[in-house]
Amino acid sequence: MKKRVWIKMIMSIVVLFFVLSGCGLTKPEEKQTKQQVVSSEQNIQKTSTPTVFFHGYSGGKGSFGSMLKRLTRLADATQEATIYVSETGELRQEGTVSKQKTNPMIQVIFEDNKSTQDNQAFWISEVLASLKTQGIEQVNLVGHSMGGVSIFDYLMQDQDTMHPLIEKVIAIGAPFNEFLDTFETQTQQELLQNGPDQLSARYENYQMGADYLPKDIQVEIISGELSADELSDGTVPLASSLSIIPLLNAEGINVHSTIITGEQAQHSALHENEKVDRVVANFLWK
């Protein structure tokens, strides 16, 4: 009798051992499989080219902070540095860009976050020149709202060897034609074919500087449309956000656009929208 009890105890211990072993192996296998599925679905490629993020008017660390965290999961990207720009244009960098294939991301914070477009464009130039001194030869640029506007202001300046080459550019909810809603007088098709029929001072400056745009960049324009009756993200008219496209097409630049719709297409919600995350990840790293 004791012998049978002893045998049952041994069998129970053996079964328990295999059950626990199975539990210990299951989670890593599931995690690995999930990563493989995400990688397969998104076709994410690993690159050493840093992507530099610029917030808009009145923005700050929170403007892109959440998106950067989500991109670390979605695209296995890594935020490697944050660069603070003082009111006088002095730079303070936290972190080091590794130059490894980590899909590196750099966040730029303008401490004077309500400064002019001209100042922002100058500060962008200073940031990129600093990265060049660190051995960074090419970068991608992402800007929300005025950050996107200022990126194009920078791109329309003379490009020189003191700055990295620009590979890809993403503008999110950027008012390229200021806040003019030309859809009141023209259709979207007419806008994309002929350009806006009303020109702001900002857009006129773009027209004059378009020849300086690097012709081999790739551009993604992300716009917000709250509803079929409100062709706007609540701040920037859809027509203004799209208005840069015919200008880029005229210069032979590769440009693609995505319109995000619904309540989460609100101006300040665009950089919190997971649909925008996927567009950004696919455009940069797919």
From TrEMBL:
It holds the Pfam family DUF915. InterPro entries: AB_hydrolase_fold (IPR029058), DUF915_hydro-like (IPR010315). This is Alpha/beta hydrolase.
